Input
Amino acid sequence: MTQTLTKSQEILERDAKHNAGLWQPNIVFTHGDGVKIYDADGNEYIDCMAGIAVASVGHGNERLSNAIAEQAKKLMICSQAHGNDTRTDFYDKLVSFLPSEMNLTRFFMASSGSEANEAATKWAKAATGRKHFVVAKRSFSGRTHGVLPLTWEKKYREPFGPYANLSTFINLNKIDELEEAITDETAAIFFEPVQGEGGMYPADPEFLQAAQEIAHKRGALVIMDEVQSGVGRTGKFLACEYPGSKPDMVTLAKGIGGGFPLGVLAMTEEVALKMPKGGHGTTYGGNALASAAGLAVLEEIEAKDLIANSLEVGNYFQEKLRALENPKIRTVRGLGLMIGVEFKEKVAPYVKALKEHGVIVINAGATVIRFVPPLIITKEEVDEVIARFEKALAQVQA
Ligand SMILES: *Cc1c(COP(=O)(O)O)cnc(C)c1O
Output
């Protein structure tokens, strides 16, 4: 007798023959609507992963999907060697979101976070004539060769060296270690203001302030990796606004495209113009389609006041998580809608149980569950997540 497979099982069977073998997916998503996402068999989930902090304005967003469709009919690709109206509109809109005192008025457009970070390391070298970077333990800067040496996790980094970029890892928030690590070979300090992949650790504002002062005094630049924390997720457009940072460079990706591949390196003019003409580039960077997506995301954030929503609903979400007082939960930390729940044990069974109760999340390390929903999430939807989380906790701990 032939067994009938569900639609998801059928797709997963075919997929397993061709994927690169890096993951073992056990769910197939076919569409989404706001914070909801649906599998191939029509089951509904609340998406607190959002493609890992990517779907900032939610799934199936009108403004974003219309902007992409309209731009696609008009012009998709336009080399950065040529001007493009949509790209320039994106620049102007982005400038209006960046705190003016940071003077981040120059942009290099890429297609991912790793690419934006790679560009930042090249610009730091071009601007300082130095080659060394100081990074924090637990940092995640991406998976390409240029940024792997700035990524802490050994299993990502060690098998693929040696690397052209040189780095020293310090403990986050340890000013004395930073003092010691910065030398006259240091091109830049390179920090995530809230570590994402490494476990959702916000850096101390005092540390970021001191780090910036020490770096600048010694002729090194300050780079903030806001690939995950940027674009309103923490309740400010940039997380490094909390300590009042004045970075020389900030990188954005994930949320800025709302799902469309887009990475941006924002720089001061002083740093930007140190790169020799033609010293860096990429075919797809600044293409009209990505620019239209980025512009629509920023317009949607403005129109719906999503940065304020991140702060308000994020704080509400954190309060509700803290109120759970589950004996296996060690702590809840985060900023806005960038939230980590650290357990006293491995979280894989909880991630699985949450999925069974209709909530999609991802871990951040072995013992932390990450909640990074679309910035449009409401308090009512948070209440529903909490109710399902309680059931998942009870199921695992039964
Ligand atoms: C995801 C991430 C990256 C890498 O971005 P990709 O788009 O995957 O290349 C870099 N830095 C941080 C902080 C990230 O969260």
